[in-house]
C-alpha cells in the first residue's frame, strides 16, 4: 500500500512537471510584447518558421476539426505546396506533412474545407484544384510525411482563390482564365469527384468572393445562394442559385478605389466589411475598412468607413460574432469590435503583430491570413515569418468586448488634446494604458466626462472602464 501511494505521488509530480513543460512553450503577451512580437490581448501559443515548414514563403491558411475526436489541424499554404499541422496541443504543434504543389511553385495558394476534404488552388500554371482527404492526417505516426492528392480537377489552370458554400456543396474558383476571371462553379457534393457546373463571366475579374445561402434582412432573397464578389474595382452581388442562369442583383463602388480585394458579411448578413488592398499606398489612408449596408440587396449603400491606428495594408478579414479579425501585412492581426456597427462605430481592441520592424504601408514580409474559427479559440496566422498560433488572453475577456448593460462612447478618435467619454450609466474608474500595459492615466468619471491626453506621446492607447469596456484610441 505504501509503495502504491509513493508511485501515485511520483506520477502526480511527473504529470505536473509535464504540464509545466508544455505551458512553458507558450509566450505570453507581457508589457506589450510576446517575445519579439508586439501584442495586446493575445498570447503566442507556438509557431513554425518558413524553414520549419520547408519552404521559402507562407501565404494562405484555413483550419479543420476532426469530427471524430475534436482534434484541430491548421492547413497552411506554402510556395511549394500545402502543410498540415496538428495543433491539438497548442503549445507543442506538430508538422504532420506536406502535399506538394500540383505543378510549379507559386507565391499564391489558397485553401478551403468541405466535408473533411481540403480544396487547394494556386496561381501556378496548370495547377487546377487539388483535393485532399483530411481524415488521412489521423493515421500518421511518423512525421513529417509527403502526401499525394486524392483527386484533381483540371477544369481551369491557375486560380487566385477558392470559395466554398458548405450549405450548397459547391466550390467557386475565382481569378481563373475561364469566364473572364469570374467565378467558376464546381459541384463538390461528392468530395473526391468534383464536376464542372458552369460559371459567371460578368462584372469584371473576381479577385475574391463570399458565397452564402442567404438568410439576411432582404426577404426577397431568403434561401437563395448569393455571391458577393470583390472584383478589383466594384463589389458585385449575384444570385447564383440556378447555376445555368446566374443573375446580377446589383453592383456598388466607393470613393477612392485602389484595389477591391476581399470582404466578409456580418453574421446577420446585414453589413459587408470590405478591404481595399492598395488604398493605403495610393491615397495615404491608415488601414481602411469600407462598411456597406446590404439591408436591400438590390440597393446596397455605403454605410461608413473605418480607419485603423496604423498605415499598414489590410489583406483578409473574417467575422466571428461581434468581432472582425483582420490581417494586415505589416501590422499583423487586428481585432476589431463591430458590436456598434449599426451606429457607424467599430473600433480596434487588440492585436498581434507578426512583423515587428514597422507598421508601414508595404507588402513584403507581413501577415497574409487569419483563421479564427476553431472551437478552442486558437487562431491561425500565416504569412511572412511562417505560421503563428495565438490565443486571446484574460486581458481581453469576453466582458471586455462588449457589455450589454452599459454603452460607452469615446470621441474624438483619433484624440486631439482630450478624449470625451459618455455613457448611459455611471462610468466610474477609467484607466488608460500604453501598448506596454502600463497605466498612464487614471481617473474617475460620472456619466460623462473629459480626460486630457495632451501630455501623452503620439501613439496607440487603450481605455478600460470600471465596467470592463475596453476601447482603443489614437493620440
UniProtKB/TrEMBL annotation:
The keyword Signal applies. The keyword Ligase does not apply. Residues 410-470 form the Secretion system C-terminal sorting domain. GO terms for cellular component: extracellular region. Keywords: Signal. InterPro entries: Choice_anch_B, LVIVD, Secre_tail. This is Regulator. It comes from Dokdonia donghaensis DSW-1. The lineage of its organism: Bacteria, Pseudomonadati, Bacteroidota, Flavobacteriia, Flavobacteriales.
